Structure prediction request, 134 residues.
Amino acid sequence: MLPPPISVKGVRSFLGHACFYRSFNKDFSEIAHPLCKLLEKEYKFNFDDTCLRAFGELKEKLVSAPIIISPDRGQPFEVMCDASGVELGVVLGQRREKILHPIYYVSKALNVPQKNYTITKHELLVVVFAFEIF
Prediction:
């Protein structure tokens, strides 16, 4: 069981992981808004009941996210890429009845030199990583 975060660093870490799956969760940004406010410099850290509800709802959405499906080679694939300062993540998916379903997840930690790349280079690196995998 994942306890609620007790610091800005904890909130940032949780949201970093949760944001990767935002495309699988309806109204993600709206639900996460109280937690995102905690990351603003001018906002005093106060993990109140609103934040606790948002945390609980996001946690529930993450564990009930769509299950992995088998690929249908006759349908188009979608590749979603995400790069942070510490790792690259890619999801291969397909739409079934307009709903995006994951087929394969893959991630990779960045090495020390890669961690110093600019945001643009991180985004390009994750695209290259996706092409190498798929």
